[in-house]
Amino acid sequence: MSGRVLVVDDDETVRDVVRRYLERDGHEVVVAGDGESALQLVAKQVPDLVVLDLMLPGIDGLEVCRRLRQRLSVPIVMLTALGEEEDRVVGLQLGADDYVTKPFSPRELALRVGSVLRRAKGVSAGPAMGELLDGGLRLDTVARSASLNGAPLALTTREFDLLVFFMVNPGEAFSRPQLLERVWGWDFGDQSTVTVHVRRLREKIEEDPANPKRIVTVWGVGYRFDGTR
Known about the structure:
Domain OmpR/PhoB-type: 129-227
GO cellular component, one term: cytosol
GO molecular function: phosphorelay response regulator activity; transcription cis-regulatory region binding
Keywords: DNA-binding, Phosphoprotein, Transcription, Transcription regulation, Two-component regulatory system
Shape: globular
Radius of gyration: 17 Å
Order of helices and strands: EHEHEHEHEHEEEEHEHHEE
DNA-binding region: 129-227
């Protein structure tokens, strides 16, 4: 699954290495060295995916992410340093779909990019499930669209995937590591990624996010989708 990828990093060496690996996988790659240039490039032509470093001169990566999410659903893969856990969580809250921690393997990043693009374009290893319904909540897994009480829902790629997983496995409790493995495809990773995405989903699909009825917390385990029964 190839696409047009915008790589935003102030380190020229990182940009060049990432470009080579992504082009090797068949992607068209454009690069930017700062946040302002990145936003200008997106305004001219929206990419299929953005690889975004959080530590940028001028407009930082978090602000770039926030501005993109105000008007676009383009998938975003963040690049973060080991000590930037708080920024990583904020980035996920702003709507980033995935992250890779520096120092990183360029091959791993290329695989993450391919995985996110496949999901964003509705390509998966399994069969399409069609329509999923829970009261006023409707998901079309073929068109990858969602609505609540007839109003469109703006979901990121990972939010959509997580909600689909919950809805096809109602009544079953899953731990955060299980969700990381089965939704993100990660054997290990920061479990706060799951926590942040669940919180964002609740804000979008629950009548009262502080007292959720659909995605409930199972203390000592993780989360379960109860629906509107």
